[in-house]
Amino acid sequence: MYEETGMDRSQKADAVAELNRTFNEVGVVVVTRNLGMTVKQSTDLRNKMRAAGATYKVSKNKLAKIATQGTDYAVLADLLTGPTALSTSVDPVAAAKVVADFAKTNDKLEIVGGAMGNVLLDPAGVQALASLPSLDELRGKLVGLIVAPATKLATITQAPAAQIARVLAAHSEKQAA
Q1: For the whole model, what pTM was predicted?
Q2: Residue 80 has what DSSP assignment?
Q3: Which residues, 6 or more positions from 127, have their beta carbon under 8 angstroms from its beta carbon?
Q4: CA distance 32 to 83
Q5: How far apart are CA 156 and CA 154, in angstroms?
Q6: What does the alpha-carbon distance between residue 37 and residue 61 come to, in Å, rounded to a whole number?
Q7: Are 144 and 111 in contact (CB under 8 A)?
């Protein structure tokens, strides 16, 4: 039974342990089906995932199902059929965003569904998640909102001091003349 997949028992145990660790650390898992992507296309997708802080990994469905047991991602078990791959990220939006963007230009990648914790997502749910701003984008917006009032406050507090300095300079010039 184990010989047919080319992995021995310890390699399978290691793969399950690694996947289980991943499922316990990530904020989202997107399941995709490979409909004949080339090696170059898979490498391109992996590179885009890495740049976004996400991962794309082809895994044996049986091992992935075992790895989901005892995690929030046990809800994915029914999606793991056929030639699937798992895209994961700690940021709940990153993996979904990269997969959705890639699938727009590549009909060899099909979004099967996914999960955010124990919440199962259908393909439309993954697309909706992909349309949200990432954590980094949200942080940037928040910093912008926080910095804007501080900048205005600094300008307001500097204005009276500048006016006083101009008045004093004008007064000293007047007395010197």
Answers
A1: 0.71
A2: -
A3: 96, 100, 111
A4: 8
A5: 5
A6: 18
A7: no
